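Researcher: Next sequence.
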Amino acid sequence: MKRKIAIIGIVWVCILICGCGIKWKNSTETGGENGTQKPDSPKTVLNWAVWDRESYPVWDALKDAYENKNPEIRIEIQDLGSLGYMKVLMNDLLSGEDYDIITTPSISDYVMLCQKKLLLPLDYYIKREKISISQYNTDAKNLKMNGKYYQLPYQNDFWLLFYNQDLFDRQRIAYPSNDMNLEEYQTLVSQMTSLESSKRIYGAYYHVWPSVVRVFGLLGEEEIPAFTDFSYLAPYYTMIMEQETAGNCQDYIDISTMGTNYAYAFSNGDIAMMPMGSWMIAELVGKQYQEEETYQKWNGKNWGIVRMPRNESRDPYEAVGSLRGLAIHGSTKYEEEAWEFVKFACGEEGAKIQAQYGHLPAYYTDEIREILMGIAYFPKDEASKEALEVHTIWDVDAVIGAGWKEKEKIRKSLPEIHTIWDEYHKKIMSENMNETEGLRELEEEIQALIQ
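Model: Next structure:
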């Protein structure tokens, strides 16, 4: 199965730097004389920067699988956390920390790392190994910076609508569908908002990211809006804020102040629907690796997924996608060893491991799709399976009528664009600025930036 992929976010590949460790065994194991000890061959240690190790057991699964095949290598996972991952990573890299492999969470992060000249060009290795970027179902231009590749695609994620089946069953309301329009979605949000034994049930949950609003806008318009236009987002901000006022969703300020984790919020069992990236599948499926008793106490274990609601004139198979990658630190002492791990994690073998843990790898085939749908706790209903049959649009490609030079300016300005956009998003959602005024000022700043 082939997917066309277009990028909204950026997938980041991080390579961590290596050190050496020596293990010692006693003479009964090594055959040494007079009880003396002698060292085994030293192992090459590769430091790999990731986030939320506890929530994503796939990091350790890839590490273990690679170490079993390559006993001379040890992978040290450095968990930098998800909140502020890039800030911590950038501070560490600029202060000389020895990372070898770097995970890139988004395109803008990838662009920023390239601009800081922190990543190793991979063109020599890609050519040597005869790797075709087309095997990753992504456009090669989205991976190139200044004409060179600095990462391999690791995961291709896209936005889905997650829902709590138990809440729909209790209210005897039909589950969301894969061809739902925005009007039907808003009606469903209202219908699913209720009180259960003095507990508030929210029809929807919206996380604090600007991209949550953006995904509704990209699919809610009759045509894909230009990347530098923001005024069209006003009705989607209004939709979410009106639901907030009506008590149909949790308050933005409360969520941002408490630093709420979206997966934990969903697991409380009081949220009917949540727009979120496909990466949440892995977080929900990850519950299977807990003790069964713990899992059974979790309130959101019966869940499903459908494609995001959209304008009726739009292709029902469209999804808004993002790309994550694996890259090598430009100052690594173990360039060849780091490359071999990146090639493994981003290749077919690594993709199968990712799918076993609920992730959508960039290397994606029918076989890997079947592995993903066959794992424990993945929804068994047909609509959830069909939700994975999409072709994705990438946010950076939504530049209607722009020439090549303008597109390049936009791509290279992504880190600044996202920073400015986030500031205005906070002002609008906190009601410090109305959506029309805020979006107009945001658009003016972005257009001035890329002149």
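Model: Confidence is low (pLDDT under 50) at residues 1-39, 397-402. The chain has 20 helices and 16 strands.
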